[in-house]
Task: structure prediction
Amino acid sequence: MKHLFTTTLFSFSLLASAQHLQQVLILNEGYFDYTNNISVEPVKIGSYDVNNNTYTTVNTLSGARFASDMVIKDEYYYVAADSVIYKFDLNNHQQLAQTTCTGVRNLAVHNDKLIATRGDYDNTTFMPIFFESYLKVYNTSDLTLHTDFDTTNGPKYASQNILVRDDKAFVLINNAFEWGNEKGIVGVIDLNQMTYGNEVDLGPDGKNPDNIMYSNGFIYTVNNKDWSGASVSKIDLNTLTLSATNNISTASTGCGTSCLKEGNIVYQISQDSTLIEYDVVNMNNVGPIANYSTNFYALAVDPTSGHLFASNTDFYSYGKVEIYDLMDNYVNQFSTDITPGKIVFDVRFNSGIEETINDILIYPNPANDLININGINEGEISIYNILGEVIYTNEINQVNSTIDISSLTFGKYFIQVESNGKYSKMGSFVKI
Result:
């Protein structure tokens, strides 16, 4: 990625006082021999201690042929594996509940509800399995069914990733198991009313959306079309309208190899070892990022440090995760179980405060003289440099606040807002 400064490992005093990374959870898909119908290596969940650089297997799901997703909410984490959803204690990793959900794909949590998408194909005929419902909602307390969106009142096709934002769930509808009939739709659930309403069509080049992300008022999807190319779609969150769908490659991306890093999308083409940066504002490729030469299977960014965690596997004999810092320098790596397909971060608040306020919107970004902070009615705002030193503090008492940054040297800065005893997620901007 483009940077205006260089550095190595560092820590933020801001984060040390507000939040810390308790552990990194790794969902390892294992190795199932479909030819002989036997599990060679079961699905396993591992915990990585970033301070001690140690990895420990904490759970084994012997009955699952594969695993597809894992999410953390409060003191629990939820796993989708084969046709079962599991609930575990985040501290001791004890299983607390499970429920059958045939064809479960991806998960998301909103308050006390767990949202699950569905889709699958027959391993013998390789034809899609058609369900009466591609979207279900469960109670997080015991995983009992709360709402079942059938094809009349919900998605009509197989669905995949989910993004929760502003009391809405945005569901990727791709029909990816019916080859040659891929769809490109983002469905919207009102989580307060628990109703399925709007659908946003991503256009002819936006078929087969695989991943969904949010940044600065827009939703972005990475789409694999008909597996012969890839594109990025941009949706205005306020109007729920498609802003653009632009092609990015003549080959498909890896299933889990796209994420937001420092405000832009980074992605990797299937079977390639190059990591590419995509500018979400101008909707174009920036180009390859130096220092990356591994074909990855999953990407995720640590919200406390900005470090990129990237997994690698041959799908049958090993698994590992490599770590890169904000400057894309290699930091470390650790071995996992077989096929690490999902990486999630257990972030805790040192103060005991476990609530967050909404994300703050910083614009323009990059900026020269002024930045605007949107999304906070009142509170104390602090700006930190790359070393974690406080360089600016002030009280804000309006929805929009403008800050003069003309005196700052060029480089990257971080913003934290505290309001009514709650911390915002960290924002960042670049001074140019």
User: Anything to note?
Assistant: Residues 13-18 form the longest helix (6 residues). The CA atoms of residues 29 and 172 lie 22 Å apart. The helical segments are 13-18. The chain has one helix and 39 strands.
